[in-house]
Every structure is written in structure tokens, then in C-alpha cells.
Amino acid sequence: MQDSNSVGIVTPQYVHIDKPLCLKSGTVLNSYNLVYETYGKLNSARSNAVLICHALSGNHHVAGVYADKPKSTGWWDNMIGPNKAIDTNRFFVIGVNNLGGCHGSTGPASIDARTGKPYGANFPIVTVEDWVETQEQLANHLGIDEFAVVAGGSLGGMQALQWTLDFPERVRHALVIAAASKLTAQNIAFNDVARQAIITDQDFYGGDYYSYNTLPRRGLRLARMLGHITYLSDDSMAAKFGRELRSGTFSFGFDVEFEIESYLRYQGDKFADQFDANSYLLMTKALDYFDPANTYDGDLSAAFRAAKANFLVLSFTSDWRFSSERSRAIVKALLDNEINVSYAEITSSHGHDSFLMENHYYHQLVRAYMDNILI
């Protein structure tokens, strides 16, 4: 039975941007495509738009389902819809697949007009700042001068932060959930191990595996398995899997024995069938590079002097990859600049994935904040 508060059947939309994009790396893309979805209606004042920025493995499909895939529920469908925390009866919500992605926006698997072949390894490195600039171009295309809210979790929260710095006049509120102002050394290390798993796969071919009609499936599978471990908490894994054996006894071999092994391999296989390895490399590099305080000698408070938005910052107790300490550092930098900010640390056992989960208290916090936004 379809959720009565679902946005229902949705259809992706496409926009071609002809304005050249000068990336942080120095490379210029003369044009590019973005795929996006919208939910709700833009009001006559064009003051109720909400931009949802996706995390590493996310995309534009944020809510609803596709007509030909009734089980294709959007990744934040529990948060967005009629009468939900982000209420599409009030707000016009936009989800976009980032440049460099693999779900319709221009990325490594796209055809390079100069060669007639996929970009592959020639697709340039992209950063959070680059994504925000492309999202601003999408806003221009849609006739939106100012977002009521820019929101996201994890890497999406980083984009929300960057929006308030790059286009402070175009964001009234920022929802920064389970995010950080920069990665720790440990997080960078996890990302590098994941990338090495892909790059050293014999089917990677230097990123040009499309030409060889193959995929670095094993490397991407391992990368996802490693990443998935870091998105969970010890408590959530213990509660869901413990040390349960699939057959009830040891087999004294190296095949799957524990339920957690079976789960991770399933997640790895599923992800390898749905995501492009080159896009995964790009997304993790964007995570590594993000650090708005870098040009201010590490002073995060100085970095936020340009921000004018109001903020809701949320963290989760069991999120050890993007710990609450990292969110509190953002809150302190905002308060140092006398910026309006609300903060909550939410009790959850789901680790970093908590921002995607159904949690009554969490959703009520978001709902209460959104309900107080004037449109």
C-alpha cells in the first residue's frame, strides 16, 4: 500500500547548462547536464523553495516513486512529503544529482563531445564549491532567487554549509545534519582505502574501464563494504546481527559464516550494480577536500563571517564518523559570529546512517523548525 503522505509518482527532469564552469581544479567544463526532481509547488512569491543536497551515494531521487518501479522509493522519503517534516504542501522541494554523479548528471560515464567516448579518467575532480555553483545555475534556471532552506545530511550538510558562504544572500535557512566542517585524518584514511580498493582492481584500467566493456566491480564492492561498516554503530550491528551464524555452526573455511558477513556482501554487491566506480572516487575526494576554514588559517569562525542564514544543526550520539563534537564546532563558529543557530544531539543507535532513519524525535525537530519558517 502506498504511503498516503507520499509525493506519489515522480519524474526526473533535465537541464543543460551552457555557461562554462571553471572548477576549483582549474579545469573548465564548457557545458554540462543536471538531472533533478521537484515535489510540491513553487508559490507565486517564489519564496518556498527547498534544495536537498545529497550525500556520497545519494542522487536526485529524494522522495516518491517511479511509475515503472513501484519499489523505487526516494532516499529521504520518510522526511519529505505532504504533512511530513519537510511538508510539500508548504514547500517546493528540489533534489539534484551532483555533477560527476552517475544518475543522469554529467559525469565520468557521460560521453565527452570532444572524443565521442565516455570521459572516464579524463573527467575532472570536482569539489563541494563546484557543486554549489552548479546548483546555483539550476536555481537560476528555475527562477529561484533565494532558497527558503538548503538542507542535507553528511556530504549534503557540507554543501548546505558552503551555500551559506558562497551565496549568503540566496539562503534564508540551512539544515546541517550529521555533517562536519572538514574530515578528520581517520575519515580521510577510510576514503583512501576505499579508493585504493577500486584503483587496484585489475578491471579498473586507469579509470577507462568503459572502453574494455568491464567494471571494477570487486574494488567497488570492497569500498562499499568498508564504507558501510563506518556508517553503522557497534550497537546497531550487535543488535541486528550479533555473532549469529547462518548455519548455526562453524564451517572452518573462508566463505560466509556470520550474518554480518552476508549482509555486508549483499550491500557491496547491490551497490556495485548501481553505482559507477569513477563517481565514487570523485565523491570521496570532494569529501576530503572540503574545509572552508582552510583559506582562513584554520579559523572556522572567520570562515563563517560571510554567512547570513539561520541554522539548524543536528548530530547523533552514535555517529562516530561525523561525531557530535564536529557539529558543536560548527555551532561555536556560528555563535562567534552572532548567527542564529539551533542545535540538538539526538539519541540514536544507528550510527552515521541515523540521518536517513525514521526517528520520531528527530523528525519532530525538523518539522518544528520548518513550521516556523515564513514563506
From TrEMBL:
Gene Ontology terms for molecular function: homoserine O-acetyltransferase activity; homoserine O-succinyltransferase activity
Pathway: Amino-acid biosynthesis; L-methionine biosynthesis via de novo pathway; O-succinyl-L-homoserine from L-homoserine: step 1/1
EC top class, as a word: transferase
Family annotation (HAMAP family): MetX_acyltransf
The family this protein is said to belong to: Belongs to the AB hydrolase superfamily. MetX family.
Function as written in the Swiss-Prot or TrEMBL entry: Transfers a succinyl group from succinyl-CoA to L-homoserine, forming succinyl-L-homoserine.
Subunit structure: Homodimer.
Protein name: Homoserine O-succinyltransferase
